Amino acid sequence: MSHTVSPTSTGRTSASDSVFNLGYIRTIPGLLKMAQMVALLVTFLCVHCARGWPNWAAFQYFEVVAVWFLVVLLVFFLMHLCRLQAKMGCINWLLTEFFHYCVGTVLICIASIVAAVKSGGVSALVAASVFGFITTFLMAVSLWTSYSVSCGPHHTGAAV
């Protein structure tokens, strides 16, 4: 049997054949991930560029948490954008993202509370804690949506 590929009449490839899933950017999970990355980047920059930290250890923790979850969100975003999760079927990506959002929501909330309490009136640190709370809210929304996808009721379409 011969395996020849015939060209299409328009010469274009379909959207499912492209390497990038640009439609993901316009979905709610894609928009949430981009908003989380922007909020975490602003949070990190506010903490990193602040002068006169009243409590160095607390803000180092806040900075590390912000960078860590920013990098992980970027990895998840790129995986969805490049459709890599379909190529690595040995990992349950829905459960992995759910776990990431559980841990991220708790750790960023704790870091934001500590930053708000120990900011000492430094405006950059207050702004960082505000953006940390915004990120916490966005991650909680993503947690809720990933929970409803991975753990929620699944309808089979069978009549009862």
Supply database-style keywords.
mainly alpha; 5 helices; disordered N terminus
Q: Note the run of SSEs as H and E.
A: HHHHH
**Radius of gyration over all CA atoms, rounded:** 21 Å
Unreliable sequence segments: 1-13
Q: Strand tally, please?
A: 0
Biggest sheet features: none
What structural category arises from helix and sheet content? Answer: mainly alpha
How far is it from the N-terminal to the C-terminal residue, by CA?
Answer: 47 Å
Helix content: 55-70%
Given the C-alpha coordinates, what overall shape results? Answer: elongated
Strand content: under 5%
- pLDDT averaged residue by residue: 81
Number of helices: 5
Question: What would you note in describing this structure?
Answer:
With 160 residues, the chain is mainly α. 66% of the residues lie in helices and 0% in strands. The chain contains five helices and no strands. The chain has helices spanning 28-49, 56-81, 84-87, 93-117, 123-150. Mean pLDDT is 81; it is low at 1-13.
